[in-house]
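S., here's the first fold you wanted:
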Amino acid sequence: MLATMLAVGCSAWVIRAEETPPNLVGLLTVRGQCLKVSIARDDLTGRCTGELGMAVYADGRTGFHFMMRSRHIFTVSGIHSKQQSNAVQVDRIVLNDGLETNKPEVIAAEGSCTYGDPYRGRMTVRCAGKLGRLQDFVASFETDGTPPTE
């Protein structure tokens, strides 16, 4: 399980599943490479598959889904910034082990993501922040420049 693999130990910051945003309005998949995916000292970059999902919800929430081996997904999620059109204010990380029998683990976070337009060629998603006071996280992905699939 990805949550165990990460050994984050942040059960105090877990957000209830009923707080998950409804109303998906858009989902794109882009190809490229993970530049970095890590929590604290756990570097997960080598487990990335080269695919990134980008989800947009009706309430302004955006999720960047870093696809990992063994069907695991590392998601950085937050509300679209009102000050910057290409930024997201991160408020949670979602760890999904890919098994239908297990619910994803949602962990409160603080940070931000910036991104470019995937329809205009190569672009980079860069996310960074903290889980609680002690755990840093970083997640970045560079697309290969091909148009996204919807």
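And the second, which I think is the more interesting of the pair:
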Amino acid sequence: MIFATLLALAGQTAAPAPIMTITVQKLPATYTKAPIVHLDFTSKGTVSTCTLEQSSGSPGIDKVACQQVQSLTLPVEKGKAPESRSAAVEFVTGAPAK
């Protein structure tokens, strides 16, 4: 509680936990940080809407983040849609697939 209060006082908020990590061959020069998206879910646990909350600095990466989270399905309890949430979509560089 004290840590959260200190962050709020400093005008900073803790970044949401990553919901997905995407490996790419190269990140654009404009990429500065993981994009933060807000997700709404259906009663089947699939993503119904993805809204960009904080840009990565790259419009292309931001678009890919929302496209890729559309494949997520979260567990459903008693037929109720999972709660909406904000999450980071991490992008990392890796070796090209052979």
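Why I say that: Residues 1-9 have pLDDT under 50 and may be disordered. The CA atoms of residues 3 and 14 lie 10 Å apart.

Talk tomorrow,
H.
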